[in-house]
User: Fold this.
Amino acid sequence: MYKHLSECCVSVPGSRNLIETVSQRFAELCVSIVDNGMEKTFKFIDGEAVVRAVGRGILMRVVATDVISYYGIRTALEGSILKLAALGPEELAWHPAGQTPFAAVGRVHPSQDEVHETRETRHG
Assistant:
């Protein structure tokens, strides 16, 4: 089980395209990527990052087994988002998270007519 968990919500235009670009950058760093359409999970040896497109922004969740992995994953994700979205670091406010995904920043439910195809791609 993960000991280090946090979440963040950021308002950015073109959130779906941003997630695709982040996915391409993260492909070199992670073990695999699970693609659920509007959400991607980047899996690492000791943790994972989940990025979900919502309305006019993105929700991010970082979890890890140890503090070094947690900050490594979070820093890589922040760096990609800040560079691609031209945001300032002050626009990223991380909140402690629990076991329920995105409860810390507000739960988002996809509409019932959305169909999400899940694909996992292994890297390295």
In short: Helices lie at 15-26, 67-85. Strands lie at 4-11, 32-35, 39-44, 47-54, 57-64, 95-96, 119-122. The longest strand covers residues 4-11.
